[in-house]
Amino acid sequence: MNAWLCENPTGVDALQWKELPTPTPGPGQLRVAIQAASLNFPDLLIIQNKYQMKPPLPFVPGTEFAGIVEAVGDGVTGFKVGDSVAAFTGTGGFATHALVPAALALPLPAGFPFEDASAFICTYATSHHALIDRAALQAGETVLVLGAAGGVGTAAIQVAKAAGARVIAAASTDEKCEKCLALGADATINYTTTPLRDALKTLTEGKGPDVILDPVGGDMAEAAFRSIAWRGRYLVVGFAQGGIPSLPLNLTLLKGASLVGVFWGEFAKREPQRNAAMMGALAQWYAAGKIKPVIDQVLPMQDLPKAFARMSSRQVVGKLVVVNS
What we know:
Elements: E1 2-5, E2 16-19, E3 29-38, H1 41-47, E4 64-72, E5 84-88, E6 97-101, E7 105-107, H2 114-118, H3 121-134, E8 142-145, H4 151-162, E9 166-171, H5 174-183, E10 187-190, H6 196-203, E11 211-214, H7 221-226, E12 233-236, H8 250-255, E13 258-261, H9 264-270, H10 272-287, E14 295-300, H11 304-312, E15 319-323
Parallel strand pairs: 8-9, 8-11, 9-10, 11-12, 12-13, 14-15
Antiparallel strand pairs: 1-2, 3-4, 3-6, 3-15, 4-5, 5-7
Helix pairs in contact: 3-4, 3-10, 9-10
């Protein structure tokens, strides 16, 4: 097998495409021949030694991928050689092969393309867990999605619309805003040219959004939270901008609002049955055409550094995917 190996987590330049022994699955494991893998923001952080999870060196980065079961370890039930699966494992995806605990493998229905499957689990699970579970989003409520053109943002637009909500998408360019409208957003805000609070006041007739989904953090958080509706829920999903904001807690009192943490990975570990039910519901939504991953570009696996460069440039709409030919 071949893989992008991180022996020193100093950034993309330290990754090396190397030939490694093809692993044999142990008890409870599958060996998957990877067809496609997608990039998530933690993939960049982990090779820079900036992520909360720090795997032992050396490691193969790549949190999320899809492929074909090539071998099955002892004790595995429900999978056989030739099955199509997707997986979110934290590491191992930027390679030709990976070992996957069977408990973390998602069986793919017929006709589910590998490129879509590789870009499905993380963003849609995060968005569904955030909006449906943590925020208890109701039909007719208004959702503000920050960073709406990114992977989580594009998924959140679709999940919120599937739940019957009104969606305001906030993005950094007019082009990104247009793409959010094409995904089903009801209104958009280009926050580089329009003050966020002014736009939200106009679009919500002074009420403010009921739910704010924030995977960005940074300097927009306070302006967004000051605009939230009475009994609003502010979903803390991530900090893609880099800065972790400090919010005046008196705002929660004045607005009767809630700050709600969203950590899908921990939810999946602690509540596996609820997570499995959620993933089943998302697969049904995909089959019904309610949700579909937005793929920015598809590149060869060996062009992973180019994919990381595009991600770092903040040009990506949706997700980047790398494939093994």
